[in-house]
Amino acid sequence: MNVFTLPHPTTPDPRAEAGTVPAIVTAGLARSAALRRAVATPAPSDALGHAVRAERLAEIYAREARWWGVLERHIYSPASTVPLVYGDAVIIARLALRDDARFWAETASDWRARAERRPTSDAAGALCNHADLGVVA
Asked: Assign residue 44 a region: left if phi > 0, alpha if psi is -120 to 50, beta otherwise?
């Protein structure tokens, strides 16, 4: 799983002029980082709690990917003077976070299945326990 976070997610970038796309995106990314930290603790104690937390993380990562998409569109806009190599980096970040969102959505699905005593996917790894669920191979 890839995680792109700002070095100081609660500190505004002094180089980004207030109200500009970079400043707005920086604020959005900071909010996402704060939400991720809030969801991280306390650890859930049951499968349903894990499912709810994973669903929330999927939402947060998807939102963060969309923030990177806003910055991507800004960089590639005709009015932008930002070197395009930064746009390439933003695309990498956006795609990685999109993948993270997908990972957490699939993880949530597996935890929810476990909570409902249904077989989970093979991709769930440690979450998959067919014997515990009474599934005979």
From this structure: beta
